[in-house]
Each structure stands twice: as structure tokens, then as C-alpha cells.
Design goal:
This protein is mainly α. Helix 3 crosses helix 4 and helix 4 runs antiparallel to helix 5. Helices cover 60% and strands 0% of the residues.
């Protein structure tokens, strides 16, 4: 699979839209992630160390998911769905 195909797949991740709201922090993000399963949890684990206030969350998630798919860790067909599941937990790190 080409990297550009996956990038197109992840471009419209509305669950990762960042609003101006205040975010909770690492303990809350980790508590949220504890409820994730399978590929969504892998996405959170791969992405969370890269997220801090001011991070372009969509870009970081897209790169992490691309790497996970290319490495055979998650399926291309479920990447978008699982990124959306991990998104709210990742937003708490902002």
C-alpha cells in the first residue's frame, strides 16, 4: 500500500478536530486510553508520546497510523475507525 493512499484515508478525521476547549492532561488521557481496545489502543500508545500542547494532532496521528499500517501492526481497513476512537483520548493531552 502506498503511503499517499493512507494519508487520503486519514485526511478527514473529524474526531481529531482540535477545539479551543481546555484539555485535561496525561492522567485523564491515560484513563481514557485504558478503555480502548486493540488497534485503537496501539494508535494511542504510538501517538501519545508525541502529543503536547500546540501539536498538530491530525499530522501526528496520520504519521503514527501510517507507520503502524506499513509495519503490519494495524489493518488499513480499520485504521480510520480506530484513529477516531483514540482521538478523544489524545486530545486530552493537548
Amino acid at each position: 500500500m502506498k503511503k499517499s493512499t493512507l494519508l487520503v484515508l486519514l485526511v478527514a478525521l473529524p474526531g481529531l478536530a482540535i477545539s479551543g476547549a481546555a484539555f485535561a492532561g496525561k492522567p485523564e488521557a491515560d484513563a481514557c486510553a485504558a478503555k480502548l481496545e486493540g488497534e485503537a489502543k496501539l494508535i494511542y500508545e504510538a501517538t501519545s508520546p508525541l502529543v503536547q500542547p500546540g501539536t498538530d494532532l491530525k499530522a501526528v496521528v496520520t504519521e503514527a497510523v501510517t507507520n503502524l499500517v506499513m509495519g503490519g501492526n494495524i489493518a488499513k481497513d480499520t485504521a480510520e475507525t480506530n484513529a477516531k476512537k483514540a482521538g478523544p483520548c489524545l486530545q486530552k493531552l493537548m
